[in-house]
Amino acid sequence: MKRPTRPAPPLKFDMSSAHPNRLGADFDGEGTNFPLFSENATRVELCLFDETGQTQTHCLDLPSYEGGIWYGYLPGIREGQTYGYRVHGPHAPEEGHRFNPNKLLIDPYARELRGDLIWDDALFGYPIGGDDLELDPRDSAPFMPKAVVVDPAFDWEADKALRHRWQDTVIYEAHVKGLTMRHPGVPEEDRGTFKGLASPAVIDHLKAIGVTAIELLPIHGFLNDRHLIEKGLSNYWGYNTLSFFAPYRPYTKSGSMREVKRAIKRFHDAGIEVILDVVYNHTCEGNEKGPTLSFRGIDNASYYLLSPEAKRHSFDTTGTGNTLNVAHPMVLRMVMDSLRYWVEVMHVDGFRFDLASTLGREPEGFERGGTFFAAIRQDPVLSMVKLIAEPWDIGEGGYQVGGFPWPFREWNDKARDDLRAFWRRDPGLIGDVSQRLLGSPVQFSHSHRPATSSVNFIAAHDGFTAWDLVSYDEKHNEANGEDNRDGHSHNLSHNLGAEGPTDDPGILEARLRRVKAMLATLFLSQGVPMILAGDEFGQSQQGNNNAYCQDNEIAWLDWEEARDELIRAVADLAEFRKADGGISRARFAVGPDAVQHDTPVATWLHPAGREMEEGDWNEGELRLFALRLDLPRGRDLLVVLNAGDDGDFALPEGEWRLKIDTSRERIACDEPALGTLPVGWQSVMVLVAAEEAD
């Protein structure tokens, strides 16, 4: 790092304008207030750099300390100023303290970052190859990105949260870069950025297939792990957070957070909500052998959970080396401030919480009424946005599907697995699938939770794509450099006769039919449907079910090979779900013996035309059955699922009209049906009562 060639003009704190109230560099138009929380520090230095972030111009002690917050106001420090901190305190690893002022640290509240992290041994608080109880004296500043002072002013032009009802929501899980890098309609210079993400080509496609919310894989500033870079790979998914406020700079063409705001505004103009996948359970600093970049050097004992047996070591319930200590009031405040910032300043519409069980861990284990959830539920801002939990972590008692409090919704892996297995033609699954069609009431119909509590999906970023589910029997993760040992093996997939790509027309037809049937079941189930970006056109990752490190054509969407028949099918399913108004209701359907006011009534039908009997549910080879939904003030629906060979289904009395048939090239139709209905192999059919059809 360059040192100034001549002394910089002196700077002096103005304590009459200083305050500890708002954390993070706060520019007021005349100067900037710099506060930093560290209750165990003994001294905090604010280091200023030139606009490149390479030359240090000043280093000053923050002059005031109050309630664990060090702070000072510098007149004349404006938008664009780069800075970092050096924090002094006890170097006592066995007591949990790892202060090392030789390490430049990123402000946890930084709104922008400038420069890239350059991996060097100086980034570690101890000498690499030595004992982590030792202190490393090298300066890390030359290798660190720097925080940037920003002006949050932006003309939103009356933009506000869309707040689509959950029952009207269709989620599209996507990666900023992967969605756009190979899109022919996105200008090449904009690909991989928020500008490209919000291009007309992308937005028009999402609107055409009925998407109401785009859920973005992590966009917070994150770190590319050293071991991945050394193997020529990267942390593509981004689940390795460095900053909870600053966007990941490479996703912005301009380097400015305003580009993110402009993208969000364009999505809102199109009627599409923006949901962020956020990682508040851990950070990129890893365990005690990891680098010292921010939280560890600012106050390790406050920001992280430490082992109750030995505070020298991190307490890891996430599988990443550390666990953020959200039970600490100031760490919880940081998380809440971050969430509110993204809602109030950046205008996002909701969040999906990675490994959310970790956020509910109290001293006695997971608590659905714990501090984190209570804080969000009472918050007048955050309680109004969309909240989605990934309801598990790797710790004891971490699997909590159905265990989160309202207003949280949850990823439902039970629906994922049962629908995959049913369409793979596994025996004895009609009982399980019947529950998934009704929104998994065993898991979610309690504590006054609605049927929209379940976020249903066939595929997500972690695992096979929908097309790979019908193209590979085994995972093929060799490109990850771990001898195909990484990634899970329980994929519930079937290649239908050939491992990987094939020109066999019979296999291709079978694959197309099965994917359409799986997607149809997803859209025809109560709950909230989520589709993985690319599943609407048959995206393949070449059998890689753990593409976390593949920032390349393995993971980037291949728009040139899109299957138009699948795109039309998804558009038709989304349109039917929207127009029908019955499948997406917030109330759980009930059986004929439990009729409630304004509640759908579900009846299960055998292909012989009668109601299902107890013995039918135990018939392992039965793969053809139907759900009849009698809807108050709506159309009666009949959803027929056939995971087996061609069959016949005896329709209930009355006249029906066929609206969806996934065995056809164009699945949307409108034609009369009565008597015995021929049902094609591996297909879904939807009928409505004729008198209500129009």
TrEMBL record:
<dbReference type="GO" id="GO:0004135">
    <property type="term" value="F:amylo-alpha-1,6-glucosidase activity"/>
</dbReference>
<keyword id="KW-0378">Hydrolase</keyword>
<protein>
    <submittedName>
        <fullName>Glycosidase</fullName>
        <ecNumber>3.2.1.-</ecNumber>
    </submittedName>
</protein>
<dbReference type="Pfam" id="PF02922">
    <property type="entry name" value="CBM_48"/>
</dbReference>
<dbReference type="InterPro" id="IPR013783">
    <property type="entry name" value="Ig-like_fold"/>
</dbReference>
<feature type="region of interest" description="Disordered">
    <location>
        <begin position="477"/>
        <end position="505"/>
    </location>
</feature>
<dbReference type="InterPro" id="IPR004193">
    <property type="entry name" value="Glyco_hydro_13_N"/>
</dbReference>
<dbReference type="GO" id="GO:0005980">
    <property type="term" value="P:glycogen catabolic process"/>
</dbReference>
<feature type="compositionally biased region" description="Basic and acidic residues">
    <location>
        <begin position="477"/>
        <end position="489"/>
    </location>
</feature>
<dbReference type="InterPro" id="IPR013780">
    <property type="entry name" value="Glyco_hydro_b"/>
</dbReference>
<dbReference type="InterPro" id="IPR006047">
    <property type="entry name" value="GH13_cat_dom"/>
</dbReference>
<keyword id="KW-0326">Glycosidase</keyword>
<comment type="similarity">
    <text>Belongs to the glycosyl hydrolase 13 family.</text>
</comment>
<dbReference type="Pfam" id="PF00128">
    <property type="entry name" value="Alpha-amylase"/>
</dbReference>
<dbReference type="InterPro" id="IPR044505">
    <property type="entry name" value="GlgX_Isoamylase_N_E_set"/>
</dbReference>
<dbReference type="InterPro" id="IPR011837">
    <property type="entry name" value="Glycogen_debranch_GlgX"/>
</dbReference>
<dbReference type="InterPro" id="IPR014756">
    <property type="entry name" value="Ig_E-set"/>
</dbReference>
<feature type="domain" description="Glycosyl hydrolase family 13 catalytic">
    <location>
        <begin position="160"/>
        <end position="577"/>
    </location>
</feature>
<dbReference type="InterPro" id="IPR017853">
    <property type="entry name" value="GH"/>
</dbReference>
